[in-house]
Amino acid sequence: MIDIAVNFTDGMFKGVYHGKNCHLPDIATVLNRAWSAGVDRIIVTGGSLEESREALAIAETDARLFCTVGVHPTRCSEFEESGDPEKHYQDLFSLAKEGMQKGKVVAIGECGLDYDRLQFCPADIQKKYFGKQFELAYATKLPMFLHMRAAAADFCEIVERNKNRFTGGVAHSFTGSALDRDKLLSFDKMYIGVNGCSLKTAENLDVMKGIPVERMMIETDSPYCEIKNTHAGMKFVKSTWPSKKKEKYDQECIVKGRNEPCLVRQVLEVVAGYKGLGDINQLSSTLYHNTCRVFFPQDLDSAADALLSGHHNTN
């Protein structure tokens, strides 16, 4: 499995919850659990210039970690608050290039539109700098890691206008309607990312069922978006881990209420269960291939080359 969305820059992975220090930083422990659960790679999300720098530094600590560079819609005010929006853009571009040279930056993002949280950034600023980040995608030839919340019409209009400026992308943490889903699927280079927030209600599950597995990726968006006991998808979950409250931290247990990458296995199980797919390994393989096609295309080239050379050898 590949978890396409992990917020390792979040304070919870440093042991800080609501400003209170509860335990030591534990990314290494969290990663060990993920690798043991069958996670093969993780994409660390960048949501601002500063956060993207931190995401790159984290990605450099393990060969299986990668990251994005971009500005989240709720933080797009940082372009103008920097005092020089063009320099801010150039700094993002330089960071993306540096990360690409290191083989670590695999997407521009997290960027898009979020009209649920306009108190953090007004819609006009969000739209302006969502559009601007397509320039980054075009200049770097990187795919896009996208965020769409309560903004489908404007989001799809901006994507439509820029559809020839990016190589592909994923609308991650999808929680929209069937109509929103179908609008996204109308872009042939667009995939949809599913996590616990995508699987909360019976309606969410029905919408998810209509996403072809060939156009889907899975994620945790940890430390957020866990699958909770109250969620409609929970009845399909088979894998569980012991958990303890943060105040009683134990590195052998996950922290109650904090999502982490090993739990992407549960997302896979809910997708398989609700879609009625008996072969979870085949599903996992398809989702893995989708993710490589967009974010790790060189791996598909290597695999194809290996396959071809294998055929030549047997011939």
Sheet-strand content, in percent, reads 15-25%
Gap between N and C termini = 33 Å
How many domains make up the 3D coordinates? Answer: 1
Give the integer mean of the pLDDT values. 95
What shape does the CA trace take?
globular
CATH topology: TIM Barrel
Largest sheet: 8 strands, parallel
Count of DSSP helices?
Answer: 11
Structural class: alpha/beta
The parts where pLDDT drops under 50 for at least 5 residues are 311-315
Helix/strand order, N-terminal first: EEEHEHEHHEHEHEHEHEEEHHH
Portion in helices: 40-55%
Query: Any guess at the CATH architecture?
Result: Alpha-Beta Barrel
Count of distinct strands: 12
The largest beta-sheet arranges its strands as: 1-4-5-6-7-8-9-10
CATH class equals Alpha Beta
Going by CATH, the homologous superfamily would be Metal-dependent hydrolases
Radius of gyration: 19 Å
Question: Brief description of this entry?
Answer:
This protein has helices spanning 27-36, 49-59, 77-81, 85-101, 123-140, 152-161, 178-185, 202-209, 264-275, 280-295, 297-314; strands at 2-6, 16-17, 20-21, 41-44, 65-69, 105-114, 144-149, 169-172, 190-194, 216-218, 243-244, 254-255.
Overview of the structural elements:
- A divalent metal cation 1 binds at residues 23, 110, 221.
- A divalent metal cation 2 binds at residues 147, 172.
- The protein has 315 residues and is an alpha/beta fold.
- It has a single domain, classed as TIM Barrel, CATH 3.20.20.
- 42% of the residues lie in helices and 16% in strands.
- It contains 11 helices and 12 strands.
- It has helices at 27-36, 49-59, 77-81, 85-101, 123-140, 152-161, 178-185, 202-209, 264-275, 280-295, 297-314, and strands spanning 2-6, 16-17, 20-21, 41-44, 65-69, 105-114, 144-149, 169-172, 190-194, 216-218, 243-244, 254-255.
- The strands form 3 sheets. Strands 1-4-5-6-7-8-9-10 form an 8-stranded parallel sheet, sandwiched between helices. The chain has a two-stranded antiparallel sheet with strand order 2-3. The chain has a two-stranded parallel ribbon with strand order 11-12.
- Helix 4 (85-101) packs parallel to helix 5 (123-140).
